[in-house]
Amino acid sequence: MKKTIHAIAAGVLIGLVLSNPVLAQKKTVAAKKPLTTVAKPYGSIIPNDPNVKIGKLANGLTYYIRKNTEPNKRAELYLANKIGSLMEEDNQQGLAHFTEHMAFNGTKDFPKNEMINYLQKAGVRFGADLNAYTGFEQTVYQLPIPTDSAAVFKSGFKILANWAGKVLMEGEEIDKERGVIIEEDRQRGKNASERMSKQLLPLLLKGSKYEKRLPIGKIDILNTFTHDKIKSFYKDWYRPNLQAIIAVGDFDVNEVEQLIKTNFENLANPSNPRTRARYSLPENKEPLIKIITDPEQPYNVAMMMYKHKDGAVRTTTDYKRDLIHSMINSMLGARFQEILQKGNAPFLFAQSSYGPYQGGLVSGVSAFQTVVAANSGAVLEKAFTAALAENERMSKFGFLQSELDVARKNILAGNEKQFKEKDKTPSSKFVQEYLSNFLSGSAIPSIDYDYSETQKVLAATTLAEVDAIAEELITKENQIIVVQAPEKDKSSLPTESQMIAAARNAGNGVSAYVDNTVNKPLISVAPVAGKIVSETKLDAVDATELKLSNGIKVVLKQTDFKNDQVLFNSFSKGGLSLATDADFQSAQMVSLISQSGVGDFNPTQLNKLLAGNTARAGAYIDDLYQGFGGNASPKDLKTAFELVYAYATNPRKDVEIFNKNISDTKVILANKNADPGSVFSDTVQAVLNSYHKRGMPTTVSDLDQVSLDRAFAFYKDRFADDSEQVFVIVGAFDMATIKPLIETYIASLPSLNKKQNFADNGLRAPKGKVSKTVYKGLEDKASVQLYVHGDYNYSESENIQLDAVKAALEIKILERLREKESGVYSPRVGLSVEKEPNAHYYFTISFSCAPANVEKLIAASLDEIAKIKASGASTDDVSKFKSEEQRQHELSLRQNGYWLNYITTRLKFGEDMGQYKNYVQKVNAVTAETSKVAAQKYLNEDNYIRLVLLPEKK
Predict the structure, then answer these.
(1) CB atoms within 10 A of CB 462
(2) 181-215 confidence digits (pLDDT tens)
(3) Residue 3's pLDDT band (boundaries 50, 70, 90)?
(4) Residue 617 and residue 569: Cα distance in Å, rounded?
(5) Do the beta carbons of residue 300 and residue 8 sit within 8 Å?
(6) Are the CB atoms for 774 and 557 separated by under 8 Å?
(7) Helix (H, G, I), strand (E, B) or coil at 771
(8) Does residue 557 contact residue 565 with C-beta atoms inside 8 Å?
(9) pLDDT tens-digit map of 63-118
(10) How is residue 508 annotated by DSSP?
(11) β-pairing verdict for 726-731 and 288-294
(12) Is the pLDDT score of 5 beyond 60?
């Protein structure tokens, strides 16, 4: 059940503004000047990576081409447009985003939905692979595509060219898409976050063109605009001198350059092109402040922002400044983490960092931002002051050399890892660098340059330089203060003047930071090493199984997929299932033990100890198993295994951290029912577990039963006997080096040689037909979850047939609910299967929609289920399933994470290790007829759960 406060804080931030990357504009007030740039030495221009070919056609279209073989036989193709909602006229609001949708609804060479249909047959997934997005100043289309088929690969460039200048904009298709976009607005909004964002926009984007150009647009315009408006937008702005093609992948560069010329050189710019203006935010002398409450806002949150003009990284001076900002964020983040571990911490969560303003919504503007969540409205001012005091402590006293050393070591470790993996760098990473270069002008240095320049800059950067830049972050001008709080706390909230005063006086009485580093080894006494007693080859997966003297098994698979990565995990049976009813609530919080650090080190001290070391490891206890997991560079494996040994033999019992987490979680649980989504989620959980006491959502009264002593005792008991642990280690390790480490740190784990198993506590989904409707929420928005489920004989063959039915149903639900009914934006069809403790499958169909359409769309969903049961999947849909499965399987076989999970699962379930060899063959055995048999067998509505969230009854 464990909910981390960090996850909640992230949700708060998203609700604040970041959930709407479509924020908008207002005419710039002439009297206000834009943010000014802080003067800084220029430095030398960072050279472009010589491995990328950059060119420009006669019509102005820019292109970036790079050969890269990770992943093998794949390419990433992007069309980037310097076109967004800022280009819209008042009567076109939302049409930049609408145009992006229309690019998938008919072009000159791919009418109607033929583009998606063609790509799905080639193994490209719509949404997961093929996608696009629109912002204020850019629209970007992405197309990952295989290169082992010359025809498919060449067609990728034809598709990009169709997006760039050949979208048909047929009237019928435009009108059908209106409902889809309105449902996109409903799915992403119609909640407290959106309501509060609408009040915040005039403040956050005050006086700028952005203020009234939310990319999603205005609903009334989306419903009523005439077809000529979107056609003129496309004609005016989709032009080659505002476009770039980015191609990175396993191909011949010269061939790709010719494909770009062939497909794009005939695209023309308008004879009288419209000017693409640039916009920014004006300065504000006095603080801007807004206090907003909402009945569905669950938490009391405050944010302080100091806006800064800060362009892209282009020079060596920019590069150094960017690294210093990274170190400042790291050091300040560590200080806040340290405070959050204390029982008297004045806030639920707090964080300060420097970065792009509101996640990069406004180009050329960054901000030093502090966000804080408080227990209640009554203590929000105190929490806000305490968080800002840490900023002031940084500004007045700077950092300690010991803090800077930790930050420097961590950056150097990441820099070294990137350098070692340079020939294994994924194409997607290069694409993002070139996209940033085109859209904002940021430099694209080579990995070699990054490596040497980072080392040089960090070696030369002094503490005084870091402190000087840290001091600049807090300014007297360009301040923005935001408060978001529950409506019920309105009367206890501080006033605007109190919040401004708190910001002004936060530095009063602060003193210098004191480091709490623990100068001890991770393991004070070296373990008594065990022995490897046998070694067996597992030819099916090209691995080696070791049996250790304490009973533990270790499976080792060496790979060359990454040069500097080793992943591992382990398991043995038991888990939370063995907790007694009396201890269950305490056992559920057992993750707090491993999150409290290990031995003499709390989490902050442990992070300092591990500075510059890539090793990370920990212990887990889930429902049926317990074990360890981690990762490291090969050179740091010793530390990773030391951590495993420490978590097994010397867990940390930290009363302060444990009680702080329990206290914070109580606050979160007490407020969560304000959010309709949370209430619905709790209902779903309860229904799917048949209201079993072990499957119910955790409540405040449950937490009153939690005991640290019982949680700690349960943790100790689960790891007192590790003789049945099975470790799986995958990656670029050296066999001769790793074996002594295994003997020292894994063969020495405690062993009692008991036979253990998990308990089946009877958690099951309800049999028969179940319907539950929750009435919660203020907006015209409904959520639907449908489940068809049942027990079955778990096997690879059956699972493949289930996957095929799911894939076919997914296609039909999208076509029916989105394309035909225009009633949803992003319906989801899911399949989950479990073998233990009881083999069971779940098909799910979920979507959000207008409440008035719930019954119609549920009926349409059930109709599509009935059609698949009657006729099976179509031949086309079976073909799409096979292509997508084959393509994904090819990619998986080159990933360490896949093999770690694959081998672990086979060992858990006692299955054939060679299954993967026949996987594609079994997928190819799927036919329309086998899918019909599977659909009739498994889409059985005898076990059918219907769950609906509707607005509160008026």
Answers:
(1) 10
(2) 999 999 999 999 999 999 998 899 998 999 889 89
(3) very low
(4) 9
(5) no
(6) no
(7) strand
(8) no
(9) 999 999 999 999 999 999 999 999 999 999 999 999 999 999 999 999 999 999 99
(10) T
(11) unpaired
(12) no
Please report which helix (H) or strand (E) contains residue 415, including its range: helix 401-420
DSSP class of residue 204? H
- In angstroms, the CA 594 to CA 618 distance is 7
How far is the C-alpha of 513 from the C-alpha of 207, rounded, in Å? 39
- pLDDT exceeds 50 at position 17: no
Please list, residue by residue across 709-739, b when 16 or more beta carbons sit within 10 angstroms of its beta carbon and e when fewer do. ebbbbbbeebbebbbbbbbbbbbbbeeeebb
Residue 31 has pLDDT above 50, yes or no: no
Instruction: Tell me the pairing of strands 349-356 and 139-146.
Output: unpaired
Give the three-class secondary structure for 944.
Answer: strand
Maximum Cα–Cα distance for the chain, whole Å?
83
Tens-place pLDDT, residues 812-824: 999 999 999 999 9
What single-letter amino acid sits at 813?
I
Q: Could you give the CA distance from residue 724 to residue 573 in angstroms, rounded to a whole number?
A: 8
Listed residue (101, 94, 95) closest to 115, CA to CA: 101
DSSP state of 601: B
State the DSSP code for 125: P
Q: How far apart are CA 437 and CA 741, in angstroms?
A: 45
H or E element, residue 572: strand 566-573
- pTM (predicted TM-score): 0.94
Phi, psi of 443 (to 5 degrees): -70, 155
> Could you please report the per-residue DSSP string of 22-84?
T----PPPTTSPBPPBPP----PBPPPPTTSEEEE-TTS-EEEEEE--SSTTEEEEEEEES--
Give burial (CB, 10 Å; 0-12/13-18/19+) of 85.
buried
Tell me the pLDDT band of 42, cut-offs 50, 70 and 90.
confident
**Distance of alpha carbon 557 from alpha carbon 422, whole angstroms:** 22
Q: Which of 321, 299, 323 is nearest to 311 (CA)?
A: 321
d(CA 110, CA 38): 50
Contacts of 794 (CB under 8 A, 6+ apart): 833, 835, 839
